[in-house]
Amino acid sequence: MTFSDTIFCFSDVDLSKYILAIAELMELDKVKKFVRKNGISETKIDEIKNDYFQNTAEQKIQMLQWWYQSHGKKDAYHTLIKSLKKINCCALAERIQDIVMKDIKNSTSDNRNENESENYLSSS
């Protein structure tokens, strides 16, 4: 499976649980560039900067959350990865993809183990 294939496999990933990790990986200028290119107005960016003037970590989180809420879940993962690549943040896009893939693999594995346990218990 290629990088592009993986993006489409997980196009409806709920990014809300990854916003904090994504914000930690990104520099403030990259977050601002990303949200600008994806429809967040300069006015909203300034509002967030002013609301969290002393806290750049929170600025990043708020900007990403605002983008995610305005974009919606559908294709948000795809938009995030593609947009990061367009602004020359390929390594960052790959790190985010790795985080999401590992989490999904672990969730799938956990669900499989739960189902196997339930099947074992019901057959005993």
UniProtKB/TrEMBL annotation:
GO BP terms, alphabetized: activation-induced cell death of T cells; extrinsic apoptotic signaling pathway in absence of ligand; motor neuron apoptotic process; necroptotic signaling pathway; negative regulation of apoptotic process; regulation of stress-activated MAPK cascade
Q: Which superkingdom heads the taxonomic lineage of this protein's source?
A: Eukaryota
List the record's Gene Ontology CC terms alphabetically: CD95 death-inducing signaling complex; external side of plasma membrane; membrane raft
Give me the segments passing through the membrane.
Answer: none
Keywords linked to the UniProt accession: Receptor
Residue ranges constituting the Death domain according to the UniProt record: 16-100
Spans of biased composition, class Basic and acidic residues?
105-115
Cite the residue spans of the region called Disordered.
105-124
MF GO annotations: tumor necrosis factor receptor activity
Protein name (database record):
Tumor necrosis factor receptor superfamily member 6
Q: Which organism is it from?
A: Cricetulus griseus
